[in-house]
Amino acid sequence: MMQFLRDLLLFFRRDLRIASTYRSPFILETIEALFGATTFYYVARFVDSPALREALPQGNSYFAYSLVGFVFFDYLNAALNTFDRSLVEARDSGTLEPLLVTQVSLPVILAGSAFYPFAATTLRIAVYLGWAAALFDFPLRAANWAAVVAVLIATLLAFSGLGVLSAAYLLLFKRGNPAKWFILGVSSIAGGMLFPVSILPPWLQIVARLNPVTYALDAMRGALLEGASVLSIGSSLLLLLVFGAVLLPTSMVVFSWVLRRTKVTGTLTHS
Amino acid sequence: MKEGEAVALLGANGAGKTTLLRILATLLLPTRGRASLAGHSVTDDPAAVRRQIGYHAGSDLGFYSRLTGRQNLLFFGRLHHLSDDLLGRRIAELAERLGLQKSLDRQARTLSSGTMQRLSLLRALLHQPKVLLLDEPTRSLDAIAAAEFRHFLKSEVLAGRGTSLLFASHTMQEIELLANRVAIIEDGKLLACDSPVALRAGAVTTTLEAAFAKITGRHLESSAGPGAP
Questions:
Q1: Is the pLDDT of residue A234 over 50?
Q2: In A17, A28, A103, A217, which residue has its Cα 20 to 30 A from B126's Cα atom?
Q3: Does residue B206 lie within any of the structural domains?
Q4: How far is B96 from chain A (nearest CA, A)?
Q5: With contact defined as beta carbons under 8 Å apart, do B198 and B211 qualify?
Q6: B158 is in which domain, residue-wise?
Q7: Is there a domain that residue B182 lies in?
Q8: Among residues A201, A18, A172, which one has the least CA distance to residue A95?
Q9: CB B79 to CB A95 under 8 A?
């Protein structure tokens, strides 16, 4: 276990070193977060009304509600894109083969390569919320941070299975993953990103209930905007863990099968 | 293969040299038959096989371009679970033998193709593998760099250090210089495997190229290669 964690840390340090050779992206992303938070603030001001506030399941302003939905959606993006992106980068840069002849397995390589992007996503979200709190009175003081961390961990576990499935698809078919775009598209509508799922038609509400994004956003808004405790968002956390418990092992089985198949067909490192 | 032995894989394009090397490097799974390396099966215990091998695919890719040579080597060495102390010593020692001291602290993207090749060989040797697998190691080197590369393999890797070498090559001069035995492959089948002298004698020819032509019934496209006179 310690060796596994040490291996993960090696990849994190590698990516941090590479990222540190590029100075401007962090500055640009910080400015972009300022623009994003400002845009959300004014859109929310434009549409906000007592009736709208009343209809929100969590929080007491549409600005806070929609901003959490928007920035937190980044996690789903990161989970779905990180694994296959790291695979493509390794393949295209020619580092995949040298990595594969070391003592670490491909699943560890993928998990390690996801470490930094998840950390960077967390930082990006923090910058967004930081701007919102500093300039637009986003209610950060209300947050229950222990619950926020619990939601982040449960969300990563639930979403990572989707990411591993996406990487398996890429290994097998070599090109863009339509399922990934479908999941992102459906989740942006039936996930509660910018509006409550209660306003959707009944059949889309069923889709939303089957979607881990809905539970992740519910729990995150509860923890961030209302200071909900781990216990009070326990049912959403539990459901996220169930999604993770089903998706992660399933995705690992699928990935192992695909890996073996590409090693037989000789297409593992092909683009 | 015996310990410390150098075996060359010789065959036309598509004969199966790279496939064999990649199977032994655990990058491919054999569809039929068995392969083992240093007593470990490549299918049953690939991790044990990987502990014993150093693999260099003959390309100058395979490094993180934004990291320095040293940072790249430290990263890959740590993935072999080498301690930082040992890694530091190995990098210093091998860099000196390969003439890479001045290149180690430059970003990989600024290094020449020849330097990257040597860096790649250094990486393959970091964990002191028992078997070195090289796929056309001098393919993209100029004549001088190729000659130096071969000299390094001969004097530093093979000379009494117990490392076995299995390499694919189209370059007869390289094979004559390095190989104790030559395995001639055609369509994935081993047609002959003997010392260069015995192959020439068996085919009643004076050159390895002619022996190859006689055994396979075909000519190699490029047998001169970099560094050949």
A1: yes
A2: A17
A3: yes
A4: 22
A5: no
A6: 6-61+116-121+129-216
A7: yes
A8: A18
A9: no
Cross-chain Cβ contact A97/B62 below 8 Å? yes
The one-letter code for the residue type at B121 is: L
Whether A3 and B81 lie within 8 Å, measured CB to CB: yes
Q: Has residue B187 been placed in a domain?
A: yes
Of B19, B55, B65, the CB nearest to A101: B55
What total of structural domains would you count in chain B?
1
Distance from CA of B27 to the nearest CA of A (A): 6
> CA neighbours within 13 Å on the CB side: how many for B150?
23
| Total residue length of chain B | 229
Would you place residue B50 in the very low, low, confident or very high pLDDT band (cuts 50, 70, 90)?
very high
The residues near B156 (Cβ < 8 Å, ≥ 6 apart) are B97
Mean pLDDT in chain A?
89
Q: Kindly list the residues from chain B whose CB atom is less than 8 angstroms away from the CB atom of residue A104.
A: 79
Looking up tokens 């959606």, which residue turns up? Answer: A73
Half-sphere exposure of A104 (CA within 13 A, CB side): 30
- Distance, in Å, from the CA atom of A142 to the CA atom of A198, rounded to the nearest integer, reads 25
From the list A14, A21, A266, the residue facing B28 with the nearest CB is: A266
B26 contact A CB<8A? yes
**Residue B113 vs residues A21, B99, B123, B134, B168: alpha-carbon distances, Å:** 22, 14, 15, 16, 19
Which residue in A101, A104, A268, A270 has the most chain B C-beta atoms within 10 A of its own C-beta, making it the best mutation to test that interface?
Answer: A101
DSSP string, A162-194: HHHHHHHHHHHH-S--HHHHHHHHHHHHTT-SS
Q: Is residue B111 pLDDT above 90, yes or no?
A: yes
ipTM of the complex: 0.88
- Residue B54 belongs to a domain with what CATH number? 3.40.50.300
A59 vs B41 pLDDT, higher one? B41
The distance of B95 to chain A (nearest Cα, Å) reads: 19
Q: Which uninterrupted H or E stretch holds B37?
A: strand B36-37
pLDDT at res. A144: 95
> Does B180 map to a domain?
yes
